[in-house]
Specification:
The chain is of the alpha/beta class and 416 residues long. It has a domain of 37 residues. Helices cover 48% and strands 16% of the residues. Strands 1, 2, 3, 4, 5, 6, 7 and 8 form an 8-stranded mixed beta sheet that branches. Helix 4 crosses helix 5, helix 8 crosses helix 11 and helix 9 crosses helix 13. The longest helix has 25 residues. The two termini are 31 Å apart. The N terminus is likely disordered.
Length: 416
């Protein structure tokens, strides 16, 4: 659609009346809005101190909590291929959706390969299958770092080191709320810490002509009911699209393992779902009081994010109808979980607020940079304020440390 708009605007520019030039301006703005929906929601690339690659231990811990379910899903895929007598004659298609960059992307692939080797060895399967491993994220993701790391990854899975029969890694850029792969080409789909991101800010909050969620960056206690309903509708639409697209791409009996931030409370503004965003709003308001940005920009900003409840997730699965839910679990994950598990001694003396702020910055900086136009100095100042507010929040919480709720789903593609 974006390309079509550019072509149309180029044709319109040939006619130079005021109306035509105005129409071209509108089309260019529309084209930019369409790009922004995808381009500004990605993790911070590179390998510097504030990059996602250096600040994703929290996400790695969430992935590890799904390791047993992932191995169980791999076993089901291997047995499925054995029953269909396709384990050796054709390859197994695996996709990791929302892979980001850094070491986490390859940890998952290594875990899958290890699980297949373990299962095939225990079942005395001599000829090991070939794997098509696809890493997906939005076009703005730092795929260059993934490509640069591929030689090292391949060296760890050579056949003479007990590796699989063949492994072929590819990167696929695009939104997982649309089709990414050929029909019935995938046996296993995985996604971790991604599906809480929406495809866009709910349109009702962007196109109403007024700021319906003034002073907030996400749903809060002060948000109107129409704001809460708009976020829920956007989640329902997006998750339905996600499931429908995967249903087209997966073989019957294929397995899907999903993990993302959700909530237990029926209230979408509960601290477990909204506290981190409320602290960001406070930090932005502080920056506005210092003359670093206009308050209207804060009023206009709404995060493309939704922490769904298990009931909301189940309702969409039932509505879409292509998957059977084998498992749906919810568990608490403390904000400070895994802070000292990355082996980086330079961070041991950092406060909890600083460690959490680094993770939050690695996740949100591209979105904040585009939305508020912050340069490096202003971004540093914003997250200094944020870090201090998070430290205050930890101090006020006492022994009851703040936490997220992580939802884990294991799904099987039905035969329909």
């Amino acid at each position: 659609m974006d390309r079509s708009l550019k072509v149309i605007s180029s044709l319109i520019f040939i006619h130079c009346s005021e109306e035509d030039i105005y129409l071209q301006f509108v089309l260019q703005k529309l084209s930019r809005k369409l790009l922004i929906k995808m381009e500004y929601i990605h993790m911070k690339g590179g390998d510097e101190d504030t990059s996602y690659a250096r600040n994703s231990t929290f996400q790695r811990n969430l992935m590890s909590k799904s390791s047993s379910k992932l191995e169980e899903a791999v076993r089901k895929v291997v047995l499925l291929c054995l029953n269909q007598k396709t384990l050796i004659s054709s390859s197994i298609g695996v996709a990791d959706l929302g892979c980001a960059s850094g070491p986490n992307a390859f940890i998952l692939l290594s875990d899958i390969i290890h699980a297949i080797n373990k299962i095939c060895s225990s079942d005395e399967i001599e000829l090991l299958p070939e794997l098509r491993l696809s890493l997906n994220d939005l076009p703005g993701n730092d795929f260059n770092s993934i490509f640069a790391s591929l030689p090292d990854f391949y060296s760890t899975i050579k056949p003479d080191n007990g590796g699989i029969g063949g492994c072929f890694v590819s990167c696929v850029a695009g939104t997982f709320y649309g089709r990414l792969f050929p029909r019935r080409s995938l046996h296993l789909v995985h996604s971790s810490t991604s599906l809480h991101w929406l495809s866009q800010v709910p349109p009702e909050l962007q196109n109403s002509g007024e700021h319906l969620n003034k002073g907030n960056t996400y749903i809060s206690k002060s948000s109107a009911e129409c704001v809460r309903e708009a976020y829920l509708r956007q989640f329902q639409k997006d998750f339905f699209s996600f499931l429908r697209c995967r249903a087209d791409e997966m073989v019957p009996g294929g397995q899907m393992v999903l993990s993302f931030i959700g909530r237990v409370s029926p209230d979408p503004a509960a601290p477990e779902a909204a506290q981190a965003w409320e602290i960001l709003a406070q930090a932005l308001i502080t920056m506005a009081s210092r003359g670093k940005l206009e308050e209207e920009k804060i009023d206009a900003f709404n995060a493309p994010y939704y922490a769904a409840s298990a009931a909301e997730v189940e309702a969409v699965i039932l509505q879409e109808g292509s998957f059977a839910a084998d498992c749906l679990q919810e568990y608490e994950v403390r904000w400070d979980q895994g802070f000292h598990d990355d082996g980086d001694q330079s961070r041991v003396l950092m406060t909890k607020g600083q460690r959490f702020g680094r993770m939050a910055r690695a996740v949100a900086e591209p979105m904040i940079e585009w939305s508020f136009g912050f340069g490096e100095d202003d971004m540093d100042e914003l997250f200094q304020v944020y870090d201090n507010l998070v430290d205050d929040h930890f101090a006020g919480a006492g022994a009851a440390a703040p936490y997220f709720i992580n939802l884990h789903l294991s799904l099987t593609r039905k035969d329909n």
